[in-house]
Design a protein that fits this description.
CATH class of the largest domain: Alpha Beta
Number of strands: 16
Number of helices: 5
Oligomer: single chain
Distance between the termini: 12 Å
Strand content: 25-35%
Number of domains: 2
Helix content: 10-25%
């Protein structure tokens, strides 16, 4: 059984929206869902997203194939305004431009963002509000020929930054372990993995603040024999990270637990660890050994 390091990850508050995307076929749906959630950028004061769940025709508001995605920003004084901006960019450039797509709200919340200003006005004044499938939607005339988006999208406070590190003996094992962990995480409702299997963990301090977070050098396997401060165990050649955001602390913990249990007997995984920074990053400390 794999060793579980006596450590914790740091998680923190975030603000998120949760939406349905539907489309005419699987190819268009995946293009929209992946395009709208690509390029995680909260470390640069922007947003990150992920696909929570792929849906069958019977699970969506309009009876087409669909997906639930989440878009997240860091929590703070300007979080709502930032989330509104980021939703606008990601929906306009990632979903609206993909033929046949429709966006619906997928979050039961009293707090909502009016999408008229950031998306609706793509109609250049020709947009209009209508009732569609019992929902208030904005109809935006475009060339395919129309795009519909539910006018009010709910948002809530959630927990971001849960994570695990899989210390593995080789690259193939790291990829297999990572995919197993992602599959186990996908069974938990309300969570996303913004980076999926991530190859580059970072640290708060950096020599180059102008470019943002830089490599977590003590955990780079190729530096193990080159730096005194290396923390890479003997035999470990690769350390993928999986980051988890969720609608609640319990959901993040369940996802982390599922991930660890999915790889606990996998030969070639030497140790499971997590990224923490001495409590400097997040107020929620999730201890790995308490999970399993």
């Amino acid at each position: 059984m794999v060793e579980i390091e006596d450590t914790y990850c740091e998680a923190f508050d975030g603000l998120y929206a949760r939406i349905f995307i539907t489309a005419k076929n699987e190819e268009l749906l995946r293009k929209a869902a992946c395009g709208a959630t690509a390029l995680p950028s909260t470390v640069f004061g922007k947003s990150e997203g992920g696909v929570e769940k792929w849906l069958s025709e019977g699970e969506t508001p309009d009876g087409r194939r669909g997906a639930i995605i989440q878009i997240w920003v860091n929590y703070g004084k300007r979080a709502k305004a930032l989330l509104e901006d980021e939703l606008g960019w990601r929906i306009r450039q990632g979903i609206l431009v993909v033929p046949t797509t429709v966006v619906f709200n997928a979050l039961d919340s009293d707090e909502k963002i009016d999408m008229m200003a950031k998306v609706g006005h793509c109609g250049d004044g020709y947009e209009y509000v209508e009732e569609y499938l019992g929902r208030e939607v904005i109809n935006i005339p475009i060339m395919m020929p129309d795009f519909r988006i539910e006018r009010y999208l709910g948002y809530k406070r959630g927990i971001a930054g849960g994570n695990i590190w899989l210390m593995c003996t080789n690259e193939d094992m790291a990829l297999e372990a990572g995919e197993r962990a992602l599959k186990a995480i996908s069974k938990v409702e309300g969570v996303i993995t913004p980076f999926d299997v991530c190859s580059a963990g970072s640290k708060p301090e950096t020599k180059y603040p102008e470019i943002g977070p830089t490599t977590n050098h003590p955990y780079c396997p190729s530096l193990r024999d080159k730096i005194k401060e290396s923390k890479v165990p003997e035999g470990v050649k690769t350390i993928p990270e999986i980051v988890i955001n969720g609608i609640s602390l319990d959901a993040v913990k369940e996802a982390m637990r599922n991930a660890i249990l999915s790889i606990k007997d996998l030969e070639g995984v030497v140790k499971v660890s997590a990224g923490n920074y001495g409590g400097k990053l997040g107020k929620y400390h999730i201890y790995l050994r308490e999970l399993v």
